[in-house]
Amino acid sequence: MTGVLAAYDRLVASGELKPDPEQRGAAVRLDRLQEELEAAPPRGSLLWRIAGRKPDSPRGVYLWGAVGRGKSMLMDLFYDQLHIQRKRRVHFHAFMLDVHARMREVRKTESGDPIPQVAAALTQDVRCLAFDEMVVNNSADAMILSRLFTALIDKGVTVVATSNRPPKDLYKDGLNREHFLPFIALIEARLDVMGLNGPTDYRRDRLGDGARWFVPADDAASAALSAAFFRLTDYPPEDRANVPTLDLDVGGGRTLHVPKALKGVAVFSFKRLCGEARGASDYLAVARHFHAVIIVGIPRMGPENRNEAARFVTLVDALYEYKVKLLASAAAMPDELYVAGDGAFEFERTASRLSEMQSDDYLALGHGQDDAAGGPSLTG
């Protein structure tokens, strides 16, 4: 059985990672947490009965830092090495959508505060809850987080989370933020907060210094985008047949099929994203869930494609607002994609954004880091 620290040290020894004291410090802490969780007696065991109560849950960890500093890599190591049955890893936004859906169901049959019931249901099969990319960008989440997480931790759940922000900057300048401050206090009191802000931006390194917008959308472009996907996800190309897919919840009981989805990176065809009846909520779900999106086969559009062009504008707005990294193959450069038809003049702003999204300054930004209290408006 391998520990987090041993797995991390092997990556450094093999040259896959550069030595980074902050990363190794986090690996040491996660290694200890792994040992604590694996050493805890099973639920309802003799040791529970002797003690007369369930054992205290190990203290959690909150890893924060700039984009590309290894937070997801460390979470991967921890979750993969953790040998317990009752564990769950989930993107924070998806978790909160699930929480709100559960609360609505409880309110259909009962009055009063639904959070205790929701927390009890969530803890039935979970001892360790691992969150990717904790970010709070709406008041509905902010109002319930303190009570929800207090209940989860009190019921024995150990929380591990990654975020681009330190706890004190979560929901910064948000509406009624004073009601959110107890959640910040809870994180700082019940989790070990560790910063990862070393000198190496691994994700930026994996994006490389070459092209990210490929014209034309031919076999060579597809090969380049495929190589970029495997670099970004650190997934072996020889196992390409087993890359996971995902049916992304976009709200309203609808889903969007993602043919390749791994470690926050998604691959779509233009036809899948913009050739079907999709709207802002669909594209916001994509932008929140993925830090990098690869789009294959963006066509040159004309008056007959005005619906596809309008959807593409909305998609780019969502990706831009959430600072999603975009790689694409297309029939033309951005300013030549849609030059005639309804909305062609407005499309110039989209072309400008697409060009900006290829810049080093844009690539250095963290995913979702500029979201405000209510999230992007998709109007600016």
UniProtKB/TrEMBL annotation:
Keyword ATP-binding carried by entry: yes
Keywords: ATP-binding, Cell cycle, Cell division, Nucleotide-binding
SUPFAM superfamilies: P-loop containing nucleoside triphosphate hydrolases
GO biological process: cell division
Superkingdom to which the source organism belongs: Bacteria
Protein known as: Cell division protein ZapE
Organism for this UniProt entry: Sphingopyxis soli
Gene that encodes it: zapE
